[in-house]
Amino acid sequence: MNHKYVIEKNSENNTLIIKEYIDLEKAIYHLADEEQYDLALLAGAAQESMESLIKAFRRRSFYIPGIYASRIAKAIKETIDGDGSEPLQVFCSDVEQIVKDKLKEEQAAEAETEEGVEIDDLLDDEFDKTDEKDIAPAINKSENKSD
After folding, report:
1. Mean pLDDT by 10 residues, the chain (147 residues)
2. Rg (CA), the chain
3. Bridge partner list, 6
4. Which of 38, 46, 135 lies closest to 82 in space, CA to CA?
5. 89: closest CA among 75, 74, 78?
6. Which residues pair with 9 in a beta bridge?
7. What are the residue boundaries of the structural domains of the chain, listed by start?
8. Angstrom distance (rounded) from CA 97 to CA 108
9. Is 1 helix (H, G, I), strand (E, B) or coil?
10. Rounded Cα gap, residues 74 and 147, in angstroms
């Protein structure tokens, strides 16, 4: 599914509006959500950091995935810093999210495999056999003492 986010600055009301559209049909977007924010609040968060800005515009009912949130935060910052005469549009695709998630999973699995190989290299089967030889006489001695 494709998403389109439209970021508009309303200087008269001192608000920023984010509209989320979803592509339910081929190239036909439907309005899914519209959120209004205090422009000064977002501007203050944007001055702190991108993470602060993302936290400021995420809501329980409007929680945008991380991969989209950073792109929307950049567009919000551009809108706040600019004159805001034209709304900015951010296009996102769930396929993009799935591909990135899959890549992260593969990288994590690869890292585990590499770590596993290193651990296996540290283990030495001959050490276990030597260790058993040392333990057996000690066990026999302790059994003899208890008799």
Report:
1. 90 92 85 93 93 92 86 92 85 77 77 60 55 57 56
2. 29
3. 19, 89
4. 46
5. 75
6. 16
7. 2-98
8. 17
9. coil
10. 79
